[in-house]
């Protein structure tokens, strides 16, 4: 029995050691990247990826720093609990304590193990609420993009723009997964029509579905919103940098659920206007 426990403890220690090493590596990478002028961003999933994708919006930056903040508590609590388990198993053996000590209730101990976790929870809750409410904030959007999920493709609508003669015109297109792979493109992640959005603008996303539940998810934007038939969900987006961002449907929606990727191209304002004019 004891050997089993020792093995288990060794395994847990190893796990925490690995976790801690990953965390240290991540911090070191972050420090190195600070000094690199031109860096390559990770905007799609990559092989053996350990961390999160690079952020493209302020909300994801908040999520990543909250994630790093939480890792401190996770590692500290994990080490404490494993140490306590180890201490109990090693110290309180039957041969060392043939007659057990009988005592009940320790008010001091109960106060300590209630108050300390409560304080830790408060330290976690305060920044998490700030982040949560910042995600709901929709600041005077300039563009609205309507996203409709279908079995098994996405369709996009730009409805709120005027042409030079001041007539409202819409741009509506479908976005299917590319069947053919070109050099340098990602398998199962490329689409025939990419969504184009401008950077440094507040964008409103309206997400719905035409048939079953889908989910519009792009990790670099920190957005994963369910597309429900008969219901319009809303999300806000503020792109900080140019790039091509990849996502996938994240709600099991049928046989071709894995084949309805999302590609968003973030461009400058002038490029966006040009693209928009060319769509008419
Ligand atoms: Cu889907």
Architecture overview:
The protein has helices at residues 2-35, 58-91, 107-136, 269-278, and strands spanning 143-150, 153-162, 168-175, 195-198, 202-209, 214-218, 223-227, 233-238, 243-249, 261-267. It has 280 residues and is an alpha+beta fold. It folds into two domains: 2-93; 143-278, Sandwich (Immunoglobulin-like), CATH 2.60.40.420. The chain binds copper (II) ion. Residues 149, 214, 249, 251, 253, 257, 260 line the site of copper (II) ion.
* Structure classification: alpha+beta
Computed Rg = 25 Å
Strand content: 15-25%
Helix tally? 4
Q: CATH class of the largest domain, please?
A: Mainly Beta
Largest sheet: 5 strands, mixed
Detail the poorly predicted runs: none
Multimerization status: single chain
Mean pLDDT: 86
- Binned, the helix content reads 25-40%
How would you summarize what this structure contains?
The protein folds into 2 domains: about 1-95; about 145-280, Immunoglobulin-like (Sandwich), CATH 2.60.40.
Topology:
Elements: H1 2-35, H2 58-91, H3 107-136, E1 143-150, E2 153-162, E3 168-175, E4 195-198, E5 202-209, E6 214-218, E7 223-227, E8 233-238, E9 243-249, E10 261-267, H4 269-278
Parallel strand pairs: 1-5, 4-10
Antiparallel strand pairs: 1-2, 2-3, 5-8, 6-7, 6-9, 9-10
Helix pairs in contact: 1-2, 2-3
């Amino acid at each position: 029995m004891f050997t089993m426990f020792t093995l288990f403890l060794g395994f847990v220690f190893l796990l925490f050691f690995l976790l801690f090493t990953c965390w240290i590596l991540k911090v070191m990478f972050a420090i190195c990247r600070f000094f690199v002028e031109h860096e390559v961003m990770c905007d799609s999933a990559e092989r053996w990826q350990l961390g999160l994708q690079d952020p493209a919006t302020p909300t994801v930056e908040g999520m990543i720093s909250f994630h790093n903040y939480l890792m401190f508590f996770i590692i500290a609590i994990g080490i404490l609990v494993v140490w306590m388990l180890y201490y109990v198993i090693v110290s309180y053996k039957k041969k060392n304590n043939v007659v057990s000590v009988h005592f009940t209730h320790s008010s001091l101990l109960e106060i300590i193990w209630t108050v300390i976790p409560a304080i830790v929870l408060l330290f976690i809750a305060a920044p998490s609420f700030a982040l949560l409410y910042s995600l709901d904030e929709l600041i005077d959007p300039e563009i609205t993009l309507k996203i409709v999920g279908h079995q098994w493709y996405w369709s996009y609508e730009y409805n709120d723009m005027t042409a030079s003669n001041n007539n409202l015109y819409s741009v509506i297109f479908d976005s299917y997964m590319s069947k053919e792979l070109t050099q340098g493109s990602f398998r199962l992640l490329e689409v025939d029509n990419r969504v184009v959005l401008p950077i440094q603008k507040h964008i409103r996303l309206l997400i719905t579905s035409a048939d079953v539940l889908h989910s519009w998810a792009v990790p670099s934007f920190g957005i994963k919103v369910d597309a429900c038939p008969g219901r319009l969900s809303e999300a806000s987006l503020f792109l900080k940098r140019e790039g091509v961002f990849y996502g996938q449907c994240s709600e099991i929606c049928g046989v071709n659920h894995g084949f309805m990727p999302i590609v968003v191209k973030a461009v400058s304002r002038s490029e966006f206007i040009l693209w928009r004019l060319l769509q008419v």
